Amino acid sequence: MRYLQVEKDVRDTETLLCRLGRAPAEHAGMVNVPIYRGSTIISETLEEWDIRNKDYPSYGRFGTPLSRALETAICKLEGGYRSILFPSGQSACSHSLLACLKAGDSVLISDGVYSPVRAFADNVLARLQIKAEYFCSTKPSELAAKISAKTRAVYLESPSSMTFEVQDVPALAAIAHLSDALVIMDNTWATPLYFRPFEHGVDISIQAATKYIVGHSDAFLGVATANEAAWHALKSTAQHFGEIGAPDDIYLALRGIRTLGLRMRRHWENGLVLAQNLQTHPAVDRVLHPALPNDPGHVIWKRDFLGASGLFGVVLKPMSPPQLSVLFNSLRLFGIGLSWGGYESLALLVEPPKRMEGSLPFPGPLLRIHAGMESPTELIADLHSALNAACEVADDTIVPPETSELVSQCQIVS
Ligand SMILES: *Cc1c(COP(=O)(O)O)cnc(C)c1O
């Protein structure tokens, strides 16, 4: 008891990360909750069966001591009422939407949203007669103009996937709540450590735990956390669809939480150093990172966020396909691959999500960088030498004045 009591008085996140979701006294003194595999849970007596049915899992699909441990830990970190696990981040996104919506309703989604969520809304929600509409994520006035009595949910993701615009979540949530719509937010980029969704008006917060919470690119998991008002709908929807997390993946996510604070600080630091450094390379047009003071989202980021993750965007000056191929093929420390949030650095050529107002204000190719935990000096050197190699590729397909300018600038640097 002495050991368990501590949790109630702990306020500091670093201490919480070491303590949350643990119960050594209930597990033979083991520091970590072991992996529970199981469907049937046996009761000794009818009385015990009744108790289990009321407030303890009575069947593996309704939870195990391990899944409850992770849910409790994430819920405390997010600052919500209860959390529930899903087999992937995408599953947490789609079921959170389904929890809030029925036929005839509409949902307003910020236009820079994770593209599989847009695809889910435009395909599955549309088939269920739920209308998905989009609004420019940086314009609360556009949300105010589009919201109607039929809008039952507003879906946010800040910063936006791929282009990293920071949203004014409190302002957007206030508009949604005036119309009694619930606010769902994908909080994967910041993790609960760097954005406290329920202090900013969010009703359901989503973590693709696959990313930073697991942190090692070796498991899939999603978590949705609700306030009291949204909890019943979220939980019953998850149960109707039979959504559960896999025991080994849950164990890895709970283990990941122990080092989340340390890892996030390193990702933040490395990401910012890389972002600052890339701004100075002549092949780079703009760096999209809200912690940079010249970023359009910086003021709101500073007001609402407690840190930054390692994921950001880089807009290149126009480059030909052969140059891009040399750029990527020259990288030694950056893997080319989907997902992010693991310990390793990644680089990817991405398509910006569709926007309300035609094309984005930049024409060049868009890179998404995930700064891993390697040495920042070596990461910078790797990116610079790959960019320089790309600049040295002569190619007729580029507009001549820009090419010569770009190449001469690059040669000065290299
Ligand atoms: C990756 C990602 C998801 C989906 O997570 P999966 O576990 O891959 O299904 C959802 N939202 C965001 C912002 C993501 O980056």
TrEMBL record:
GO biological process, one term: L-cysteine catabolic process to pyruvate
Species annotation: Bradyrhizobium stylosanthis
Cofactor(s) the record lists: pyridoxal 5'-phosphate
Keywords: Lyase, Pyridoxal phosphate
Pathway noted in the entry: Amino-acid biosynthesis; L-methionine biosynthesis via de novo pathway; L-homocysteine from L-cystathionine: step 1/1
NCBIfam families found in the cross-reference section: cysta_beta_ly_B (TIGR01324)
N6-(pyridoxal phosphate)lysine modification, residue list: K211
Domain of life: Bacteria
Catalytic activity, reaction form: L,L-cystathionine + H2O = L-homocysteine + pyruvate + NH4(+); an S-substituted L-cysteine + H2O = a thiol + pyruvate + NH4(+)
Keyword Lyase attached: yes
InterPro entries: Cys/Met-Metab_PyrdxlP-dep_enz, Cys_b_lyase_bac, Cys_met_metab_PP, PyrdxlP-dep_Trfase, PyrdxlP-dep_Trfase_major, PyrdxlP-dep_Trfase_small
One Gene Ontology molecular-function label: cysteine-S-conjugate beta-lyase activity
Name of this chain's protein: Cystathionine beta-lyase
Position of the signal peptide: none
Similarity comment: family membership: Belongs to the trans-sulfuration enzymes family.
